[in-house]
Amino acid sequence: MKLFHSPASPYARKVMVTAWERDVQASIEILGSSVSPVARDEAVVTVNSSGKVPCAILPDGAPLFDSRVITQYVDSLGKPEGTIYPADRRFEILTLEALGDSIIDACLLCRYEKSMRPKELYWADWYNGQMAKIDSGLDDLEGKWFASLTTGGFHAGAIAAACTLGYLDLRFTDKDWRSTRPKLAAWFAQVSERKSMQETFPKG
Question: What residue spans in the chain does CATH classification 3.40.30.10 cover?
Fold first, then answer.
């Protein structure tokens, strides 16, 4: 399997954390990419018309995207007993993974508003609205989803949440999400010591 990858992408990190957790990382060939909201990488576009990463190319040449699809494929490469999508909790974990991804979505919109939009066009209400989504998602991880997050090992929902928190630390260094969410902060500190998280630490 080949994977178009961007080192700072939390979505791509989800895929690689999964690969390390399932001990199949050696079977993935990393393809570099140069993508942004305003400059598409044509090598990626030829495989995935949206131009987004991660995007995988399977051994038979078939494309695979987006991250939630690719993580399930990568999971299938490992032994059945170690799946990060246990059958008895599949939809619960998929929903938790979707929650993590929705927080990332809002993070990216905030980042683009601040770092890419011309300053004279900056829309504070838009930025604040996206940040409210981030905060309510984090509150849910600390609250009603915490038991699901921390039960049953480092499953796909937990991986998504961990990559989300890692992205917050990378791109929103001035945001104090920990002080009002101590359980989530302690959990993140613990899972950040895992080899899969250490090996995929975002750069750039």
Answer: 2-82
